[in-house]
Amino acid sequence: MKIELWSVGKPHESYAKMGIEDFSKRINNYFPASWHIISPPKNAGSLSEAALKKAEATSILQQLDASDYLVLLDERGQTFTSPKLASFMQQRANESTRKIVFLIGGAFGVDETIFTRANFCWSLSPLVFPHMLVRLILAEQVYRACTILRNEKYHHN
Fold it and tell me: How many domains does one find in the chain?
């Protein structure tokens, strides 16, 4: 199973980049993993919130394959403990999921078409975090889930 971590926005900022890259590299010891940063539309500043979300959704949907298992990160989603995330990922692997895509939406969230397309909606927290912190937390939690699946010492109950 391949893991792709997608985020709408600008490249990783320096304060988070080192951690994101480190955890992403560690994930690759378990599953092939990569980041995909989706640039906002060129005219983003002149678009309404709804129009911006529609434009971002169009770009996202064009890049997804029909067989991709899409996990949308959204504060209204379902929460997991770290062991439950590991179990969730193992279930995807058991189902022979070819690629799981974890998606962090744009500054205003995502259009309804993305909610409709998502196979699962996951909330890291009811709090709202800056995108760069969400990227770092996502990478760390996916890595943690991998170590849990292998019964490694990283995660302490």
Answer: 1
